[in-house]
């Protein structure tokens, strides 16, 4: 192999490697975005479940407190809620 052929082969190798790197970057970015979206969706689902559980606890607790003839300001003060 002559010097010119070696140079051409080296250039072809570098170009091929560069294309492979760029291709990997293009494939990785959408996968990373999709994974981040999945994590965000899961976090929102957990947040919704926690809020639903808290609302259920309030729905159960409030009638118990009003059955004790507590006024809304008293309930707010006991529970640390804004009036």
Would you count the extended β strands for me? 0
- In terms of DSSP E residues, the strand content is under 5%
The rounded distance between the terminal residues' Cα atoms is 88 Å
| Poorly predicted sequence stretches spanning 5 or more consecutive residues | none
Which descriptor suits the 3D outline?
rod-shaped
Provide tags for this entry.
83 residues; rod-shaped
Question: Could you please describe the fold and organization of this structure?
Answer:
With 83 residues, the protein is mostly helical. Helices cover 88% and strands 0% of the residues. The protein has two helices and no strands. The longest helix has 65 residues. It is rod-shaped. It starts with a helix and ends with a helix. 0% of the residues are buried.
Summarize the structure.
The protein is built from 2 helices and no strands.
Secondary structure blueprint with pairings:
Layout (H helix, E strand, L loop, with lengths): L2 H65 L4 H8 L4
């Amino acid at each position: 192999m002559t010097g010119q052929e070696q140079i051409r082969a080296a250039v072809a190798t570098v170009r091929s490697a560069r294309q492979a790197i760029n291709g990997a970057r293009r494939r990785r970015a959408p996968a990373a975005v999709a994974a981040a979206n999945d994590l965000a969706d899961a976090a929102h689902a957990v947040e919704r479940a926690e809020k639903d559980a808290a609302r259920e606890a309030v729905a159960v607790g409030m009638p118990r407190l009003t059955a004790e003839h507590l006024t809304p300001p008293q309930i707010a003060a006991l529970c640390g809620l804004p009036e």
